[in-house]
Design the sequence.
């Protein structure tokens, strides 16, 4: 150990030690590491392989790190998932190199490591901390699996195993990848032609063309996929923002897309027919109707003097796009167009007889039907209300109360009645169960959007957050999180498929 005199104080200079590149293959979480041009290659010291704790490399291993002058380096096994990103340089790495033994504080899983007493201490190489892949760290601390055989070293970290999904001719950009009924659906590009494709989950190479996207769609080059009952739909935009239109297509039994509607609208299936709300601009009344599939026959629904689906607030109009069908009724917000003082209220309309019921007098933006309750988000105060005893038809004898006395930006409800919501002030995520217990789900993290799929909660976080996507199970237990921002996430059974923003790669992972 060398010593140097600095300002009258004897300070220890970190000890330099000789290291080499591995002379054997190394596979980490299914990724074969190529050390030839890697800026932060794996290194070997005293016969033990060392791994770099860069941001992406550590998350590949399910680890999160934090550095501060006061606490030094803190390493924690959290199960986070990250895709592997190789940081290449132009020149080859020398086989022999020098590293140093750090003297700053190191904590692993909240336990202080006395690096001076470690047989295989943590090292610093090219200003990055490396930790040894010993049994103690790789298995005991980081919950991985460890194998060294004649063909090299294989380590499976204690996080989820990712499988990259490669889709032929996939178009780059912000288009989503969705999975329905054993198929991946996505947008492809071939010979300057944009198409909707689908490929079997079991063998994505067997791709087939579903639909040729027609017209100029440069204004908003996005395709949205969704499912209603047992049918798969997709939509895309053609033309400009105002004069253009959305085109809605259904995938038929033969696997081909057929256009069913076009315009600015939303719809729900009612038997073989469709209940449609028209969002053409400027907003106009009498915009709710029943469309007989296979014909042009339309039956007007509701009060012809009312605008349905739109949200009117302080003289401005917003597309609410909230509509639900229960039994023979369509539930939708509405207001009288010519009465500027009329707030948005929730109505139930009998589809067959056109009887109209005022469900609640509370001005509302959106709502959710759950068993014998209706949850409504107040349009004027942002509070969440609960209505019971309305028999899903009329406000008579209904009992209404404020359920969450904090302004919300959005909320969702699972089948068990647990409400997940985002606050208006900071978009933090909370849950409220049927017993009235409130819990902070991801403290001090800002959400972008949340959605429920098969009772699992999928959370998309804002751009600058440490995670891009987090998934909770039916009990509200965190079961998956990734460091990358994502374009889309689709869930089928226990398989989650997502597409990352930066690398434009698709991954599939099996959730517990």
Sequence:
């Amino acid at each position: 150990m060398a010593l140097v005199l600095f300002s009258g104080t004897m300070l220890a200079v970190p000890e330099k030690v000789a290291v080499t590149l591995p002379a054997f293959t190394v596979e980490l979480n299914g990724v074969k590491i190529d050390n030839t041009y890697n800026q932060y290659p794996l290194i070997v010291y005293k016969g033990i392989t060392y791994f770099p704790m860069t941001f992406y490399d550590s998350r590949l291993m399910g680890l999160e790190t934090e550095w501060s002058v006061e606490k030094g380096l803190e390493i924690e096994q959290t199960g986070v998932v990250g895709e592997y990103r190789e940081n290449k340089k132009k020149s080859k790495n020398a086989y022999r190199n020098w590293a140093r033994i750090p003297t700053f504080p190191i904590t692993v899983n909240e336990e202080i490591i006395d690096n001076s007493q470690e047989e295989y201490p943590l090292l610093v190489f090219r200003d990055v901390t490396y930790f040894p892949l010993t049994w103690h760290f790789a298995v005991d601390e980081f919950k991985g699996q460890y194998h060294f055989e004649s063909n090299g070293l294989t380590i499976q970290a204690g996080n989820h195993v990712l499988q990259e999904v490669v889709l032929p001719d996939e178009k780059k950009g912000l288009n989503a990848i969705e999975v329905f009924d054993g198929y991946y659906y996505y947008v492809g590009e071939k010979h300057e032609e944009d198409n909707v494709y689908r490929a079997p989950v079991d063998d994505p190479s067997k791709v087939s063309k579903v639909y040729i996207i027609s017209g100029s769609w440069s204004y908003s080059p996005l395709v949205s996929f969704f499912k209603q009952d047992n049918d798969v739909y997709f939509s895309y935009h053609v033309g400009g923002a105002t004069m253009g239109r959305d085109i809605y297509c259904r995938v038929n039994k033969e696997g081909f897309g057929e256009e069913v509607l076009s315009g600015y609208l939303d719809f729900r299936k009612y038997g073989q027919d469709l209940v449609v709300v028209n969002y053409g601009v400027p907003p106009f009344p009498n915009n709710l109707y029943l469309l007989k599939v296979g014909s042009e026959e339309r039956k007007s629904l509701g009060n012809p003097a009312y605008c349905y689906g739109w949200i009117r607030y302080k003289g401005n109009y917003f597309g609410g796009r909230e509509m639900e069908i229960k039994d023979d009724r369509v539930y939708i917000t509405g207001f009288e167009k010519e009465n500027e003082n009329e707030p948005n209220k929730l109505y139930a309309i009998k589809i067959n007889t056109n009887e109209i019921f005022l469900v609640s007098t509370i001005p509302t933006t959106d709502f959710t039907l759950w068993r014998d309750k209706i949850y409504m988000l107040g349009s004027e105060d942002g509070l969440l209300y609960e209505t019971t005893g309305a028999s899903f038809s009329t406000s008579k004898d209904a009992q209404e109360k404020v359920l969450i006395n904090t302004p919300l930006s959005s909320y969702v409800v699972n089948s068990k009645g647990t409400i997940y919501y985002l606050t208006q002030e900071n978009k933090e995520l909370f849950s409220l169960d049927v017993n009235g217990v409130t819990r902070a789900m991801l403290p001090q993290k800002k959400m972008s959007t949340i959605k429920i799929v098969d009772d699992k909660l999928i959370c998309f976080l804002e751009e600058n957050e440490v995670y891009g996507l987090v998934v909770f199970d039916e009990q509200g237990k965190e079961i998956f999180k990734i460091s990358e921002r994502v374009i889309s996430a689709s869930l089928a059974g226990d398989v989650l498929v997502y597409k990352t923003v930066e690398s434009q790669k698709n991954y599939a992972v099996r959730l517990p």
Remarks:
- The radius of gyration is 28 Å.
- The CA atoms of residues 26 and 183 lie 34 Å apart.
- Residues 1-11 have pLDDT under 50 and may be disordered.
